[in-house]
Amino acid sequence: MSQKVPYSIKSIDLNNINVKPPKIIKNKKVIFLKYNNDNFVIQLSKLENNIIFDSEVEFEINKKDQINFFNKLDDYIISLGKNNAEEWFSHISDKSSIDYQRILQYNNSIKIKVVNNDNFKTTLSLNDDLIENLDVLENNSLNSKILLEIYAVWIKNNTFGILLRPVNIAFSYAESYNYDFINETSSESGDNDSKLFLKNLDDNNDTSDNESDIDLNKIILG
Hints:
Number of domains: 2
Radius of gyration: 27 Å
CATH architecture of the largest domain: Beta Barrel
Distance between the termini: 40 Å
Structural class: alpha+beta
Helix content: 10-25%
Strand content: 25-35%
Largest sheet: 11 strands, mixed
């Protein structure tokens, strides 16, 4: 089986979303979504974790293109709801009382529920090692990237929204350096070394112009 590649949010045309007929599942009406008749999976990278619950993770969305994508997706689903009101909300007599639950919450955060059932299981990893659940994670200094499926529209009573299904969540700890300063004697860190260094520079007056013009940043970063 060939491995699939997620869609880039920059390349997505929301008009290519395919909407399936509604189904009733566990007291909710569910409308499954596809993109060009394929699974609608996108990738979100460089996310920071705010809170980790038992089976749910709250991420902070900082990138402007990701924020814009989710806002546009919300608006598109709302327009689909209006155009399909008779079919989607046939159980509601007063269509003006319908509420939509937007994807992004306060501070542009997004809550993702990890899936683990007989039909589907979210793949979890920490520093490239597979983990079974979120219990091993700490609530700070975590970065993440997600393969996220825009799975379906859910409708319950007079509220509807988008069901997001995480395919893969890769966690990693933010890199840190655990160094401490050493105690130095006056001879180890005193002025003599600085004077010697300056004297050596003065002794090398025959350095060519080309050498003195070298950009050290380019050497370090190159």
